[in-house]
Amino acid sequence: xxxxxxxxxxxxxxxxxxxxxxxxxxxxxxxxxxxxxxxxxxxxxxxxxxxxxxxxxxxxxxxxxxxxxxxxxxxxxxxxxxxxxxxxxxxxxxxxxxxxxxxxxxxxxxxxxxxxxxxxxxxxxxxxxxxxxxxxxxxxxxxxxxxxxxxxxxxxxxxxxxxxxxxxxxxxxxxxxxxxxxxxxxxxxxxxxxxxxxxxxxxxxxxxxxxxxxxxxxxxxxx
Amino acid sequence: xxxxxxxxxxxxxxxxxxxxxxxxxxxxxxxxxxxxxxxxxxxxxxxxxxxxxxxxxxxxxxxxxxxxxxxxxxxxxxxxxxxxxxxxxxxxxxxxxxxxxxxxxxxxxxxxxxxxxxxxxxxxxxxxxxxxxxxxxxxxxxxxxxxxxxxxxxxxxxxxxxxxxxxxxxxxxxxxxxxxxxxxxxxxxxxxxxxxxxxxxxxxxxxxxxxxxxxxxxxxxxxxxxxxxxxxxxxxxxxxxxxxxxxxxxxxxxxxxxx
Lengths: 223, 259
Prior knowledge:
Number of strands of chain A: 0
Shape of chain B: globular
CATH architecture of chain A: Orthogonal Bundle
Oligomer: heterodimer
Order of helices and strands of chain B: HHHHHHHHHHHH
Order of helices and strands of chain A: HHHHHHHHHH
Strand content of chain A: under 5%
CATH superfamily of chain A: MetI-like
Strand content of chain B: under 5%
Radius of gyration of chain B: 21 Å
CATH topology of chain A: MetI-like fold
Helix content of chain A: over 70%
Distance between the termini of chain A: 57 Å
Largest interface: A-B, 60 and 55 residues
Shape of chain A: elongated
Structural class of chain A: mainly alpha
Number of helices of chain A: 10
C-alpha cells in the first residue's frame, strides 16, 4: 500500500452509491437465478430418488463430481463457449447447488417416520397426496437447511464469477477492480458486502423456516 | 481443444517457475499447510466437544458462521493488515500479498467442516458402546482412542474431504492476488485473450483432475479406515433414525447431510 492511503475511504463510498447499488443488484441476480433453477432440478431428482431409490447413488455421484470442479475452472472453461453471457456464470453456479440441495432434500424425505407414512396410507391418501400433504411439510426443516446452505455457497461463488469480466460483475467485480488498482476501499467494500449478503440470506432462511414450521416451535414449547 | 494438447505436451510448459510441475507444487504446498493448520485447530476441539458434549452449540454456531463467509471475501479482507505488517519489516510484502491472505482464508475455510465432522462423528457413536467400554474399565482417553475415534474416523475423513475440496478451489482463486498455483495458468490465460485459451483449459483440466484425484484418494482412505465390522452397513444420512424435530436433532442431521 502506498503510504498515506486510507484503508477505508467512506467519502468514496458515499460518492459511488449508485455503482455499489448496481453491483449488489447484479450479485442478487447471480444468486437468485441459479438457486431457483437448482431447487427445481434437485426437487425433481429427489422425488425421483424417493420413488426409485436405485437412482440415489448415481445422482449423488454425478452431482458430487460437478461439486468437485473448482469454481474458477468451471467459469474459465465455459467462457470461450458461451462468451461473456450470463449463461457462463449461471450454469456452474446452478450445478454447485445440486449436491447440497439433493442431499438435504432426500435426507428430509427419509427422515419422515415410517409410521406416519403408513398412517397416511391408512387414511386413504394417494401417493401424490401423501407427497404434498405429509412428506413435503415434514421434510421442510431439512429442505430449508439445504436451501440456506446453497444460497450462502452461491453468494460466495458468485464473487468468483467477476474474474471472467464485467458483463455480469456483482460484488466480485468491486473486489477485482480494487485489487487491480491497489484501492483497498473498493475491494474491502466488495468483500464486506458479500459477507453481509451471505449472513443476511442465512438469517432470512432461519426466520423463514420458523415461519413455515410452526409445529416445531409448539413442540419445543411443550417440553 | 487441440491447443490444449499442444499446451500440455509443450516441454516449455513443464520447466521453470511458470512450468506445470512448479505450479502444482505451489498449489499442493499452500493447500497442505492450510489443511494441516486447520486440522491442528479443529480436530482437538471437535474431539473435546464430541467426547464431553460441552460447548457443542457454540461450536456448531461458530462453524455455521465460518461457512457463511465467502472464500474470496475472506481472502481479501486480511490484505490491508498483512500488507501493513509487511511494511514493518516482519516479512516480505510478497509474502504479505500472495501467501498470507489466501493461506489465512483457506485455513479458516477448512476449520468448520473438520470441526463439525469430528464432533458429528463422535456423537454418532452408540452410547451403549461407550458405556460398555467404561464398564470394562477403560479410561476416558482410552474410550476416545479405542472406541470413539475408530468408529468416527470415516465421518471425520468425510469432513477432511469437504475441507480439502474447498481449499483446493480457493487456492485456485488465490492467483488473482498474484500468487502461484494452478490458478495462475487460468489467470495468465484470461489476460492473454484468445491466445490464452489453451492455458485456461489446461489450468482448468489440471485443477479439476487434482481436486477429483485427491478426493478419490481420501475416499479410499475413508473406506480403509472404517473398522471392518462396520464396513458392510454404509453410514448414510438415509438410515439416520428419526428422533423428532427438536433443535438438536436438526443441527445434527443437518451436519450429517453436510458431511
